[in-house]
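Quick one: structure tokens for this chain, please?
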Amino acid sequence: MKMKNISGSAFKKVIAQELKFENVNLSKTEVNNSNMSELTLNDVNASGSRFSDINLSETCIKDANMSNMVIENIHLYGTEFSNIMLPKEEDGNHCPDGDYKPITFKNCNLTNMEIIDCDITGLKINGILIEELLKRE
């Protein structure tokens, strides 16, 4: 069955609840001033996407490649990051020499933040290597 082409269409002031899209190319689509609560996205390529002025409270992101992602001006209270890792050998974006762009937190309020059961190899806070700091205690 050939795909229908509705490229370039514009929908304004439309109620379109509970739509289902399957095998759809929505690249370069723009969504503005919209209620997308309880939206489900599965097996989606959203690389290069831009999200701004968005409410993602109680959102769950699982099994995602967020490499080189920029997260800026975000409220993270109560947020939990778990099972975060660098790409494994079988992943397409694996780098055998382990030369990955560093993960950076800048100008963040990390009050009451807790790091539990994490590999902190190379972790620096304000230029201080945390492994060395912990060895001194």
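The beta strands are 124-125, 128-129.
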